[in-house]
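Q: For a teaching session next week I want to show students how multiple molecules come together into a single three-dimensional assembly. I've collected the sequence lines for a complex. Could you give me the predicted structure tokens for the whole thing so I can convert them for display?
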Amino acid sequence: MSLTGIRTSVIRTPGGLSVNYRPRALLVGAGCVVLALVAAVFAIGSGEYPMAPGEVIRTLLGQGDPADAFIVNELRLPRTVTALLVGAGLGLCGAVFQAVVRNPLGSPDILGFTNGAACGALLVIFAAGGGSALLAGGAVAGAVVTGSLIYALAWKRGMHGYRLVLVGVGATAILTGVNSYLITRAGITEASRAVLWMTGSLDGRGWDDVLPLALGMVVLVPLVLLGCGRALRMMEMGDDAAYALGVRVERTRLALLGTGVLLVALSAAAAGPVSFVALTAPQLARRLTRTPGPNLLPSLCMGAALLICADLVAQRAFGERQLPVGVITGVVGGGYLVWLLASERRAGRI
Amino acid sequence: MRGPDASYTQPEVLYAHNTGGDTMRTATGDTATDHKEPASGDAAQAAGEPRLTGHGLTLAYDQRTIAAELDVAVPDQSFTVVVGPNACGKSTLLRALSRMLKPAKGQVLLDGGDIAGLPAKALARTLGLLPQSSTAPDGITVADLVARGRYPHQGLLRQWSRDDERVVAESMAATGVEGLGDRFVDELSGGQRQRVWIAMALAQQTPLLLLDEPTTYLDIAHQIEILDLCARLHEEEGRTLVAVLHDLNHAARYATHLIAMRDGRIVAQGEPGEVVTAELVEEVFGMPCRVIDDPETGTPLVVPAARR
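A: Of course. Below is the structure for the complete assembly, covering every listed component.
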């Protein structure tokens, strides 16, 4: 019997194994990866000592001269890798949260997790001065505490998206206040460092900033994509429908929230609470793939592309004056949010 | 019925599509796997116990008790319909039978074993439930939605077998949506959409299928269309169906076994011809009426008494 309308393609092995893929989603993901890599090469090539893209690539492949190699590998590459990883992490966890909450507003910035991570990190900066590992630890602790509180407050016979969003908005407001208070209590040097960090900045990132995030992602990304991705797709149809199909709904949701919170926290520790990437990346990816489902992989690739491009703009578009990347994502993302609300309103959904 | 796919390693409750009394029973597949399939219920079967039963069920949301001490049995190969006024606990009972609600007291037995102990996917291969409200994801095609019914038969490395493809095509044919495969679900009419959801539940290939108010929000012609479809699935494929229905006359016409509930109690169960009487309807719905023979089918037809 022929079957039309199946939008997925399948690879089958003679052994009876089969793997689904969505051609359009793969294409979008690949496009984003290419864009991200091109932007990365330009980002590495830019700065006080400009390098041509060809030279950057040669140096990356280990064929440049030692001075170039030092500039690329030690000074500029860590920043670029941080941007790519943070973007990827935020894109993925944005897609996870939006799917779990079933609401395009369900991104970690709005749910309060990002501010929770910031709160933990600020405490570490002020109490211990903060190295990367300590900062990561503080951010994770802050996000996990916030996440547990929000989950406990919003959880009642399953979790309803709107309740979670509303509780999250409340938590964000409280934490913003707490964070501002912490900054006013700090000395002037610490405070200005903290403010820069709070905007989301990639300046001066070294390999030790990359390490906690990279290690975390090696574990968390496969866990989300392979461990929960298919169950999450079923949960789109509602908890009952997913349960009837054999998804352990509550367990899956808890696992996803847990991994999502860790991803947000590690990203925030590496680059500060960069705003709006988690909100916009999944929505852009979904519109490009035109594929139902949480679009986890395309969102991840889209996040990486968005953040590296934003960083490139922040570094180069304003002449001598460099901006923290969070300013760019905030302006672009805020504009996008307004557009989203306006268009959803026209469509009668909000 | 199934292709002899040697690579097919997962156990499955086989389901014969021909009709024929007791041979319609299930047989379990390969049992040497990590999943414990519900046994085909040899012991229970010998004792004449139906596959799905509830014993001493007390059902509650938080502290609010909906129903207490329910004993219920779903006869095998029946089209069982649960009726009763709003908020009588009929949907709650269905949720308990499908393990979606954990009973505060009592237990639900599937093939003689407590349903609470079954692995999620194993349960979903034996017992399906079509919830009252499900959301079709934005921009999903009919075929893609029906294909999701195969989830409990799939795994990380077995995402779309030829078996899956065949069963999805068959399910779409059985519900008359085979021509709609590449249409978007959100552009279908209510009746078509409900048939698509039923096709998804069929693709799950469960011998037991529970439907929570499958005709709600449909106009009368589509209600009858869906009920005719259910009756056909029940008769031709021998599936055991359990549906919660609002309309007593629909229940009386289509059910082979009727469970009437009121205020969390089961007032009567049995064949509609025996159960549906004027006294019972008055007791359950609090509405005076006459019961006559349906001129089309000879089943009981409830005619509300005229205003005096």
